Amino acid sequence: GESVGLHLPTLSVQEGDNSIINCAYSNSASDYFIWYKQESGKGPQFIIDIRSNMDKRQGQRVTVLLNKTVKHLSLQIAATQPGDSAVYFCAENSGGSNYKLTFGKGTLLTVNP
Amino acid sequence: DVKVTQSSRYLVKRTGEKVFLECVQDMDHENMFWYRQDPGLGLRLIYFSYDVKMKEKGDIPEGYSVSREKKERFSLILESASTNQTSMYLCASSLPSLTDTQYFGPGTRLTVL
After folding, report:
1. Is B48–A36 a contact, with Cβ atoms under 8 angstroms apart?
2. How many angstroms away from the CA of B30 is the closest CA of chain A?
3. Which parts of chain A sit beneath pLDDT 50?
């Protein structure tokens, strides 16, 4: 079956640095990917998404890169701020008929002032 | 903004009790989902619904049932709560397309004693 995983379970950065969070996926049929941010005690919050016909998408201070050749997804956060400290999940929709998302386990990002 | 609300943030129940978790969304979304989130296991889908009175099992439906009598409301029912159902429960909703983002509620932390 499909799986979505993360290379690094934790990431610690200095305030103002750029952060990169990685995600590997195994289902080559996946056609839609989402990054979520989850702060302590809260539900996951949508950050940015990308479809499989794209390789890059930019939002406000965030960029998602998709490399279908190696089945790799990354989230880049520019000028990381203390408020960015959270767990970040990637999720994939394999394009099946059941609307299911498969979630990664998450990466904890800690921003040091 | 999409708003998904859950009836309780924290809930403590005893083994054998019947437990109702309520979720309401205000964006007229067709799809609604119930997940549980446990450390080291990530988000796992319990049930989802793609229309009123329609439901499909997710990955871990055992011990749970659901009800969707109105489009905006999706209920998760634990018929006889057990200690292994202690978890964070997250509700989500989305539009019907396979590439539509799921928006999450704040979660209910359920403890079964």
Report:
1. no
2. 11
3. 1-3, 5-8
